[in-house]
Amino acid sequence: MSHAADHAVAPPHPPLSDGVLTLRPWREQDAPALAAAADDPDVARWLPQLPSPYTLADAEAYLASRPAGFAAGTDLAFAAVDGAGCLVGSAGIPRRDPRNGVSEVGYWIAVSARGQGLATRAVRLLIAWAFDGLGDGRVELMAAPENLASCRVAEKAGLRREGLLRGREATREGGRRDLVIYGLTAAAR
Q1: Which H or E element spans position 63?
Q2: Which end of the chain is least crowded, N or C, by CB within 10 Å?
Q3: Per-residue pLDDT averaged across 97-110, rounded?
């Protein structure tokens, strides 16, 4: 039997970066910027697990929970910041199965930073870290088929469309929606 401590993950040091985008650990002082950026109708539409409206209290609670995700090694979240250090979104591995070496990457980008390729950059950084830093053998990304932007991000980042998961996600309205699953193995990279 394995324990959560067996799978603890330290945030990468230095933070993940490609020179344009940096994925760094969340900080308490990020709360106001996080609350402002996450309180967005598109974020709420595609990420039904997030509160909507997204308040400062929601941001503070989220930030307080981040160390536990790294301690368990299963929920590894980062602030996505631009070259000036301004928050442009969130990216990470919200679900990781260390036993099977599988990481699911996810992200959202603030409305003011969309259309600049930052989501693709974030996903590429996460893929490289999952394979090279965590030693995982598979990376996945799931998106609603109607979320064309996220489907394009997955493909631009090198993930391959593998299928449709029917009724995979509960919606905010109480229904269910399909998700497209994209994947990549370390061997196929």
Answers
A1: helix 56-72
A2: N
A3: 96
